[in-house]
Amino acid sequence: MLSKEDNELLCRVGPGTPMGDLMRQYWIPAVLSSELPNADSDPMRVTLLGEQFIAFRDTHGKVGLFQNNCPHRGASLFFGRNEEAGLRCVYHGWKFDVDGTCVDMPNEPAESDFKSKVRAVAYPTHERGGIIWAYMGSKREPPRLPDLEPNMLPDGEWQLSIYQRECNWMQALEGDIDTGHTVFLHTGAMAAGDAPEGSWGKVALNNRAPQYEVVPTDIGVMYTAHRPADEDHVYYRIAQFLFPFWAMIPTGVLGLEIRARAWVPMDDHHTLALTLSKAGARGGTPRGNSLNFTETYPNGTGWFDRFRCVANESNDYQIDREQQRSMQSYTGIPSIFLQDQAVTESMGPIYKRWEEHLGTSDAMIIRTRRRLIDAARALRDNGTPPPGAEDPSLYGTRSGGIVLPRGVNWVEATAERRKAFVTHDGLSREVLGGIPAV
Ligand code: FES
Ligand SMILES: [Fe+2]
Fold first, then answer.
1. What are the DSSP calls for 266-317, one per residue?
2. Which residues contact 269 (CB under 8 A, 6 or more apart)?
3. Number of Cβ atoms within 10 Å of the Cβ of 60
4. I need a surface site. Which of 31, 72, 201, 315 has the fewest CB within 10 A?
């Protein structure tokens, strides 16, 4: 449960809000490289942290991210002419390069130096691993990009999936740090007998009320859900929250999984779920660089017209009551992503957390909220940089499952396996028993 005041502080990310200021200390994945496919391609509208921007790729391939309104008299730069290494406002012809420098002001006398006094509000961008990152902070020298392993793989080895969720970013993220729902929402229709003897899937399906342990880390919060695997061993599912909006889920095998998910706030009520992973890692069928298996509408040009799911609130997420009734599926909702989508959107745009009733299985959510709220206050009141904002190396970590002998300290025992950029021989996903989301 949170007070109304803390709930507001946690969720709101617009300019000048404490959480919005916190997020602006970090590089933000703003746009996919594929959304600006070539030099001088169409400018696009981008809603990010409650602000409106226009993104474009110039003649040299560089990406600009401008505040929507032209600094002259405010016409939207969306209509601009993207030509000859700059974006030209179509109202009076002022032209800006990707840094926001005004390079042409054709309606002023040639001898005027007014153009040297005007700039478009432009934010630094950096492109890596199919993602255009934006830095909206105030530092003249932005930090390095975070050392996120799935974003640092060579081209051809990374994959992205992206969907829009119509609710607050934190509500969406809380689904990713709530592993306990997996054996209900996603695999509730499966019996332990459906999983092979000795598999981790069977262990998970056999015991749907694991125990939880939560520990703080330098970059956020880590937790495990654990249950006995046999008399001498314990099965741990380990997952992480990383500032400001990253989740590493516990699915799979610790040491093999190279993935992370960002819950990027478009505004307080719309969020992009951007999953970065190593190509083919989950045994899926890669389609180019996209892992989008849930159907989306083609992107349009509107402020929220990106990566919207065809199954949504208006069609009850395509729920099939017969499948639900007959236990072919616990929910009757077609995909794991849509199942998460339905429950988190159904809470309303920003859930009234003062009405909830948290149990022991919500320990990770409680700690993560507290960590975020404390960090936002420390930044606001004392100027303290939030975790990882100035140390990109802290992002070099992993999540997943592991079986350990009973009685060992799981944090110490998994230190090596949690390190990114390490190859482990002899690990296999066979142990999962083919159960999804385990
Ligand atoms: S409003 Fe853009 S040039 Fe005048
Ligand atoms: Fe889920």
1. EETTEEEEEEEEETTTTS---BTTB---S-BPPP-SSTT-SS-BSS-GGGGG
2. 166, 167, 168, 349, 350
3. 10
4. 315
Helix (H) or strand (E) run with residue 28 in it: strand 27-32
Mutate to test the pocket of ligand 1, among 54, 69, 70, 104 (most ligand atoms within 8 A of CB): 70
Cα separation, 19 vs 328, whole angstroms: 42
DSSP 183: I
Kindly state the tokens that stand for 346: 């159904």
Q: In terms of Cα–Cα distance, which of 403, 411, 427 is closest to 202?
A: 403
Q: Is the CB of 70 under 6 A from ligand 1?
A: yes
Q: Indicate the residue type of 242.
A: L
Domains of the chain: 27-142 (2.102.10.10), 151-432 (3.90.380.10)
Whether 387 and 219 have beta carbons less than 8 Å apart is answered as yes
Is 73 touching ligand 1 by the criterion CB < 6 Å?
A: yes
How far apart are the C-alpha atoms of 224 and 139, rounded to whole Å?
Answer: 36
Separation CA 20–CA 372 (nearest Å)? 11
Residue whose C-alpha is closest to residue 100's, from 83, 79, 116: 116
To test the pocket of ligand 1, the residue of 72, 78, 88, 96 to mutate (highest count of ligand atoms within 8 Å of its CB) is 72
For residue 72, give the ligand nearest its CA: 1
The three-state secondary structure class of 371 is helix
Q: Please give the chain's pLDDT, 438 residues, in tens.
A: 899 999 999 999 999 999 999 999 999 999 999 999 999 999 999 999 999 999 999 999 999 999 999 999 999 999 999 999 999 999 999 999 999 999 999 999 999 999 999 999 999 999 999 999 999 999 999 999 999 999 999 999 999 999 999 999 999 999 999 999 999 999 999 998 999 999 999 999 999 999 999 999 999 999 999 999 999 999 999 999 999 999 999 999 999 999 999 999 999 999 999 999 998 755 443 334 444 578 999 999 999 999 999 999 999 999 999 999 999 999 999 999 999 999 999 999 999 999 999 999 999 999 999 999 999 999 999 999 999 999 999 999 999 999 999 999 999 999 999 999 999 999 999 999 998 888
Q: Is 171 exposed, middle or buried (0-12, 13-18, 19+ CB in 10 A)?
A: buried
